[in-house]
Design a protein that fits this description.
The protein is an alpha/beta fold. Helices cover 40% and strands 13% of the residues.
Length: 330
């Protein structure tokens, strides 16, 4: 009697303690039509793993043709490419090989559309790379000193908290159920990231291009730009400055807030940095309303943050003049 052929695909990964990378890897695979209904088989039994259709984070083999995606081998040194140098986890491996197809499906484009590639690269940089780095023990900063603060709220840390606690009931079945929660958690945040960059972040690019093109109408220096409407602008600035050969670098962004007032926000030294290219003047910081008006000579001031990275004025003209004065005041 011949063995009955399985009616569904299976995804193999290890049992026991789980991590963010394989939870996300399994979720991503299930976004593909081939594995949409796949069963997750959690085991370290080599014979059982050999019977699965694809294996992630276990088995000691990285062979895309054989659909084996482990990264724990001593000789493993695969990176994402495109300028990224952190070794991949199982999440990064699955994203490297299947991410274009996953992203294209989520944003409703084809895999050969240039927009798909742009979102694919952005999602790796903004979401998946951190999971690779944490799983492989890569420090986020090069420093010999202790960190100034710790964070236990990143996605990898939150997945870790889904395990049964030491004083709770524990069993393979309970851990399998917890792993399903980890897949749901990582998957929801992954899809949120893809949708955000595809449907929110990328459409904002045209408005930032328009603002940068019009920067000299705000001030001859070209260091101040005004958004035609508020949108996610910071990431685009760093990319567009190079593409559009912006020199000198942009210092201040002007935009209308939800109350109809105007903000002046400093451009950070680099993406993710809390250091500004040029902060608002020290004398203005932490000052509000009439007291701020006295310092700026511009009636209608609302505030300047104590950190010097953002301020507000009731009018566009006032915010513009604040920015112009800030170019020459320390």
């Amino acid at each position: 009697m011949t063995p009955q052929k399985r009616s569904h695909k299976t995804i193999g990964t290890h049992d026991g303690a789980f991590h963010c990378d394989e939870a996300l890897a399994c979720f991503m695979l299930r976004q593909l039509p081939e594995y949409a209904d796949a069963e997750i088989v959690r085991t370290r039994d080599a014979a059982k793993l050999s019977d699965t259709d694809i294996v992630v984070d276990v088995g000691g083999v990285y062979d895309p043709d054989a659909k084996r995606f482990d990264h724990h081998q001593r000789e493993f040194d695969t990176v994402f490419g495109h300028g990224h140098t952190i070794k991949l986890s199982s999440a990064g491996l699955i994203y490297k090989h299947y991410g274009m197809e996953i992203v294209a499906k989520q944003i409703g484009l084809t895999v050969d559309d240039p927009v798909t590639m742009k979102i694919y690269l952005k999602v790796y940089k903004s979401f998946v790379e951190a999971i690779d780095g944490i799983d492989n023990g890569v420090d986020q900063w090069e420093s010999t000193g202790p960190p100034k603060y710790t964070s236990s709220t990143n996605l990898s840390a939150r997945v870790g908290k889904l395990h049964p606690h030491w004083n709770e009931e524990d069993s393979p079945a309970i851990r399998d159920a917890c792993f399903q929660k980890a897949m749901a958690l990582t998957g929801a945040e992954f899809l949120d990231c893809v949708h955000y960059y595809g449907k929110v972040w990328l459409p904002a690019r045209q408005y930032v291009v328009e603002a940068i093109n019009g920067r000299h109408t705000i001030h001859p220096s070209g260091e101040i730009f005004k958004l035609p409407r508020y949108c996610p602008w910071k990431d685009h600035v760093y990319d567009l400055e190079g593409e559009m050969k912006v020199d000198p670098p942009l210092k201040y962004c002007l935009y209308e807030d939800e109350k109809g007032n105007w903000r002046i926000q400093c451009v950070s030294a680099s993406a993710g940095s809390f250091e500004n290219r040029r902060s608002l003047p020290a004398a203005w910081r932490g000052v509000r309303d009439a007291e701020l008006d006295e310092l700026t000579g511009l009636p209608g001031g609302i505030f300047v943050h104590a950190g010097g990275f953002i301020g507000g004025h009731k009018t566009l003209e006032g915010a513009t003049q604040m920015a112009i004065k800030a170019l020459t005041l320390d």
